[in-house]
Design a protein that fits this description.
By secondary structure, the chain is of the alpha/beta class. It folds into 2 domains: about 290 residues, Aminopeptidase (3-Layer(aba) Sandwich); about 140 residues, Roll (Aminopeptidase i, Domain 2), CATH 2.30.250.10. Helix content is about 25%, strand content about 25%. The protein is built from 11 helices and 20 strands. It has a 9-stranded mixed beta sheet, sandwiched between helices. Strand 19 and strand 20 form a beta hairpin. The protein is globular, with a radius of gyration of 24 Å. The termini are close together.
């Protein structure tokens, strides 16, 4: 099979990763790339025929796209590569502005699993959208453009941090203190103020700034989705430039690979079985909500596809199609880190520069939260990878009783479809800056392309 070259693919991926700092930005960038390759929104089609390139989005955060195969979906199901585009971060609370000790802060709420200390003293950016009462919106993006200010969470100096150092990792910095400096100019003192009183941060000045700059008032923040993410663009690591550091590899590295693999499928011979991708939201908080994989978005979209293929579309057709489908659950895994060898299962760790890692099951000690893929589908994927010339590895996510994690595989396998986890190994997973191997990024894309085109 013919694939994009490693350097071309990684250049495209780094551009995407620097653009897609949030799930909304990932959605819009994915739609832009799909439409540039001839994909059209589902409502454009009254009927779907072999070779049609279609996508359906929901709430600007979750998207499914497909190249319609030669055989009806109701008969053969679909091939799916499914990943997520949300990433651990800090969200502004609905009423985020408050004054303390002469500063104005953004009051934040943790989204997803993070180590709190990694976000201290880190240059941060603010992204998101504000919806006014009249339904109009304003997008905000501050911290990454040249000349932009950044935002920051302060920490105590080591000279005065003796008491802090005695606490555990989770205790020494309370979650409620993960608040970001948004404004530091003092309010003007009144004549009758106590001269010895602590200065007050000028929240009103920040509110006026928001009104002037974005034409929003403080009440508009009640209906906003504003996210604090690391500032800075993806960078190459090491003199050999073989690694990529960036925010949100988990899981945009796999979602983007699926996107590019689907574009490959669209530009080649029409597949026999419909090839599709899912780029979903909310995985980092349990796949809940209307845009998460526990919603009905996926099966609703499949039903919409079948309704445009069959004269007499029925619910049972959707159920049968889902059961006849298969999926690569496209999510990252932990790479063996020489500094922390004791957390890895002997002989079953994933390594950098050895390609994407397939995981028959995830979960913790007792495989909790995993789909535990059957050996028949594992054998099928082995054959596809070998025929596609893909370098890949089989791995587990660490030793039993050392932790664990899950993916969207469990929510897809409930339809009866065959599901195997397969994704890129990472250093620093869930940290503000994660590290991936260029070779692994490229081979992940090759793996998904081989699967969708097989």
């Amino acid at each position: 099979m013919k694939y994009l070259s490693l350097e071309k693919y990684c250049k495209e991926y780094m551009e995407y990763l620097g653009t897609a700092k949030t799930e909304r930005l990932s959605y819009s960038e994915s739609v832009r790339r799909l439409e540039a390759k001839g994909f059209k929104e589902l409502s454009s089609f009254k009927k779907l025929k072999a070779g049609d390139k279609v996508y359906r989005g929901y709430e600007g955060r979750t998207i499914m796209a497909a190249v319609i195969g030669r055989k009806p979906i109701a008969e053969t199901g679909l091939k799916v590569v499914g990943g997520h585009t949300d990433a651990p971060r800090l969200d502004l609370k609905p009423k985020p502005l408050y004054e303390k000790g002469g500063l104005v802060y953004f009051d934040c709420h943790i989204y997803g699993g993070i180590k709190k200390y990694q976000w201290l003293t880190m240059p941060l950016a603010l992204y998101g959208t504000v919806i006014r009462k009249d339904g109009s919106n304003v997008d905000i993006a501050v911290g990454d453009k040249p000349g932009d200010p950044i935002f920051l969470i302060s920490d105590i100096l080591p000279h005065l941090g003796y008491d802090q150092a005695k606490k555990t990792r989770d205790e020494f910095f309370p979650a409620e203190d993960l608040d970001v400096i948004g404004w530091s100019t003092y309010a003007k003192a009144k004549k009758d103020d106590d001269k010895d009183a602590a200065p007050k941060g000028d929240k009103n000045a920040l509110v006026e700034y928001l009104k002037k700059t974005y034409k929003i008032d403080e009440a508009d923040l009640l209906s906003a989705e504003l996210e604090i993410v690391p500032a800075g663009m993806p960078r190459e690591v090491g003199f050999d430039r073989a690694l990529i550091a960036g925010y949100g590899h988990d899981d945009r590295v796999c979602s983007f690979a699926g996107l590019m693999a689907l574009i490959d499928a669209a530009e080649g011979k029409t597949p026999e079985v419909t090839a599709s991708i899912l780029m979903c939201d909310k995985e980092e908080i349990g796949s809940m909500g209307s845009t998460g994989m526990q919603s009905s978005f996926f099966e609703n979209t499949v039903a919409e596809f079948i309704e445009r293929q069959e004269k007499d579309a029925r619910d049972i057709m959707v159920r049968r199609a889902l059961e006849r489908s298969s999926m690569l659950s496209a999510d990252v895994t932990a790479a063996f880190d020489p500094h922390f060898p004791d957390v890895n299962s002997t002989g079953n760790a994933a390594y950098l520069h050895k390609g994407p890692a397939a995981s028959k099951y995830t979960g913790g000690t007792s495989k909790g939260g995993s789909s535990d893929c059957g050996p028949e589908f594992v054998a099928e994927i082995r054959k596809i990878m070998d025929e596609g010339g893909v370098t890949w590895q089989m791995a587990e996510l660490g030793k039993m009783e050392k932790g664990g994690g899950g993916t969207i595989a469990q929510y897809m396998s409930r339809f009866g479809m065959k599901v195997l986890d397969m994704g890129t190994p990472l250093f620093n997973m869930h940290a503000p800056w994660e590290i991936a191997s260029k070779f692994d990024c490229h081979q992940t894309y090759c793996a998904y392309s081989a699967y969708l085109r097989s």
